[in-house]
Amino acid sequence: MKKMLEFKAHDGEIEDIALGPDNKVVTVGRDFQCCVWQQDQLVTGLHWHENLPGIPDKAYRYQACRDSGTFLGLGTVTGSVAIHIAFSLQRLYYVKEAHGIVVTDVAFVPESQPGRELLGGHEAALLSVAVDSRCKLHLLPTRCSLPVWLLLLLCAGLIVATILLLQLAFPGFL
């Protein structure tokens, strides 16, 4: 093996590392941060005081991470489990103290045929394992979204309704 790149990612030890799509790397460290890297450049990161206000920095720490390409799964030393959108780190799912103690690993259910059967109608499934000798399955409900054509139709309807209301309020407007 040949070293390709070296840089300081965290203050202190790195707890876990995951390879993501587009040559991105996700790291969680003892410095209470989760970072997404492209080569040696920080793309984005999670910090307790920004993402979970009211929870003291020093009481919690990211412990495990996995990146499915679409989602980032995280486990903490307090037993909490979260799922974020991989590219923006927007939190979609969070269970405080899903386990009684340290989450040692997380893994997404693969998108194989048996995996899809386990997912049912859910968007993603994350398995978490902890020191409490339990393995838990976390199901991310499918997010609702509007088709683009429906959104455009609603916008056109809003414009027409606005013009008609202006015509009624101010005769001779058009």
UniProtKB/TrEMBL annotation:
Q: What is its main location?
A: endoplasmic reticulum
Task: Give the way it sits in the membrane.
Answer: Single-pass membrane protein
Name the source's superkingdom.
Answer: Eukaryota
Answer whether the UniProt record assigns the keyword Transmembrane to this protein: yes
Can you tell me where the transmembrane regions are?
A: 146-170
Q: Name one GO cellular component term.
A: endoplasmic reticulum membrane
One of the GO BP terms on file: protein transport
| Keyword match Membrane | yes
Q: Any idea where this protein resides?
A: Endoplasmic reticulum membrane
Q: Which GO-annotated molecular functions does the record name?
A: guanyl-nucleotide exchange factor activity
* InterPro entries xref list: Sec12-like, WD40/YVTN_repeat-like_dom_sf, WD40_repeat_dom_sf
Q: What keywords were assigned to this record? A: Endoplasmic reticulum, ER-Golgi transport, Membrane, Protein transport, Repeat, Transmembrane, Transmembrane helix, Transport, WD repeat
Its protein name is PREB protein
Q: Origin organism of this chain?
A: Serilophus lunatus (silver-breasted broadbill)
